[in-house]
Specification:
heterodimer, A: 235 residues, mainly alpha, 11 helices, B: 303 residues, two-stranded antiparallel sheet, globular
Chain lengths: 235, 303
């Protein structure tokens, strides 16, 4: 399935994989802000942002082609609006939309592809995202593929029974899926309570900031800041 | 309806991020109070259910099929605050794992789909009560899609993303059809869930909470109506607003100077004006009827 790729990527081994998740989240935020606040006229700065991303991609040792193709999922949306901008006589704006959305998607994918989601969520929690939200994200991610698989099975079963596809039948199928999810949630809760779940998912090992993490943070945030400031000064 | 990064002007995404964070934190605390720790797996599995539900196709006509979007269904089964938290978590996963919606734009998407969409989906249930479940489900589904579409488009327009008038009218029309489909699906699913276990669909809410939620929802609708009016019928207003919050000033001067009348022409297009006025009228009518219904229920209760 779709997710397996990202999960496999995030368990790889590279300089970027080894960095602390909190540091990567902060670096991502700095990069995204730098890209988002650039103007259409500052093409050179956008190229520099692209170069920064390429450096990260090399360091991550992820399959570059696959990552770039996956991030291309944003292109249809931005492409449509780019066409509107061109029709409206703003070709610069069109280029800007496509570049910014694509660069941002690549950067997010680079961080998500080098950090397991559980780590990423742990980092967000220590950066003061409400624990309740973080927990719900973890649970959704954990059961997303289980419930999706179940939906897939139900669809297949309906097809093999010669289901022609009626509105009521689909509603019934969803109600059954809802009931099964409810039952699953009960079972999950009881199993977790029996194992001493206290409302907190424990992290394996306490994350510690190493000198390399600090160096990475300074380098990444510094590079993004320099690009942004230089673009402001020279434009 | 997920806005990617790079589309919203800096004041728009920054402002929405800055306001979405405390709103979600408040709702999380609220949901945490109403839900003991044991209910957290429930929210997670229900969030997973919404993802999975999108695989089941609903035939709606010749060769066309739709699928559940889920905001209203979550709101009407889990309650508004838990549904908003679950929707926020879904949006975070979509942004991080599926590249559906941006990370800086997450605040905007949370506002649109997790706060306004969920509240709009809950509003009819809050107003009609549990007596007319299916009608409430239909209205909830339809309204949540309409509300999300209107605010998302308003955010894009205020950010200076241009959409030609006819395209905007067609987009609105498509969203209107989507809203009807979502309403029908939500009503059918709520009915079917009620048949499996009536407890799941008639979870009563405390009257005070309902009132608060109703007020918030009404505010959201008024804001959305104002936004679309501003964005469509009053090009000067939009320009002035854009100037005041300092967005795209340079870009516009730089890029639009050769054709100063171009943007204005789009915005004064008759079709667009009509579409927006129609939408706004629809929303207003709903708010009025909802208020009237609420008042009727209250007076009847007193008697």
């Amino acid at each position: 399935m779709h997710h397996v790729t990202l999960d496999r990527w995030s368990r790889g081994e590279s300089v970027l994989h080894r960095r602390d998740a909190r540091v990567k989240v902060l670096a991502l935020a700095a990069y995204l802000v730098a890209v988002a606040t650039l103007d259409a006229g500052q093409q050179l700065a956008l190229v520099a942002c692209g170069a920064l991303l390429a450096a990260g991609l090399l360091a991550s040792r992820l399959p570059a082609g696959a990552l770039l193709a996956r991030a291309a999922i944003v292109l249809p949306f931005s492409g449509v609006f780019a066409i509107f901008s061109v029709l409206g006589g703003q070709p610069g704006r069109a280029v800007e939309l496509v570049e910014k959305s694509y660069l941002s998607a690549c950067a997010v994918l680079l961080v998500a592809g080098t950090t397991p989601l559980a780590r990423l969520m742990g980092a967000l929690e220590s950066l003061h995202v409400p624990r309740f939200v973080v927990l719900v994200v973890q649970f959704i991610y954990r059961y997303l593929f289980v419930v999706s698989e179940q939906a897939q099975h139900m669809r297949l079963a309906a097809l093999s029974r010669g289901e022609k596809g009626s509105f009521r039948a689909a509603a019934g199928a969803l109600a059954v899926l809802f009931a099964r999810s409810e039952a699953r949630a009960e079972a999950v809760y009881r199993a977790m309570a029996a194992r001493g779940f206290s409302g907190r998912i424990p992290q394996l090992g306490t994350p510690q900031l190493h000198p390399a993490d600090a160096a990475f943070l300074i380098a990444a945030v510094g590079a993004a800041a320099i690009i942004r400031i230089a673009a402001g000064v020279f434009s | 309806m997920h806005i990617p990064d790079g589309f919203l002007a800096t004041p728009v995404w920054a402002g929405l991020d800055a306001t979405a964070a405390p709103a979600v934190a408040y709702l999380a605390r609220r949901a945490g109070r109403n839900f003991d720790e044991g209910r957290i797996p429930m929210l997670g599995v229900m969030g997973a259910f919404v993802f999975a539900a999108q695989m089941i196709n609903f035939p709606v006509g010749v060769g066309i099929s739709g699928h559940l979007l889920g905001g209203a269904l979550l709101a009407q089964t889990l309650g508004p605050s838990a549904a908003a938290v679950t929707m926020t978590a879904i949006l975070a996963i979509q942004a991080l794992v599926f590249q559906d919606g941006g990370v800086l734009a997450l605040g905007a998407n949370v506002w649109n789909m997790a706060l306004i969409g969920v509240l709009a989906g809950y509003l009819p249930l809050g107003a009609l009560g549990c007596g007319r479940r299916r009608l409430a489900a239909f209205l909830g589904g339809a309204l949540s899609v309409l509300a999300v579409a209107v605010v998302a488009i308003a955010e894009l327009l205020v950010s200076g993303v241009r959409m030609p008038g006819p395209v905007l009218a067609v987009t609105m029309g498509l969203f209107f059809v989507t809203a009807l489909i979502e309403g029908a699906i939500t009503a059918a699913v709520v009915g079917a869930i009620g048949a499996v276990n009536p407890d799941w669909t008639s979870r009563p809410q405390a009257p005070l909470a309902r009132k608060a939620m109703f007020g918030l929802g009404a505010c959201a609708f008024l804001l959305a109506t104002g936004g679309i009016f501003l964005a469509s019928t009053a090009p000067d207003g939009l320009e002035r607003l854009a100037g005041r919050i300092g967005l795209g000033e340079r870009a516009r001067v730089l890029l639009a100077a050769p054709m100063p009348d171009y943007e204005a022409r789009w915005f004064s297009s008759a079709a667009l004006g009509k579409a927006a006025a129609g939408m706004a009228g629809l929303v207003l009518i709903f708010v009025l009827t909802a208020l009237l219904g609420k008042w009727l229920i209250r007076t009847r209760r007193k008697e």
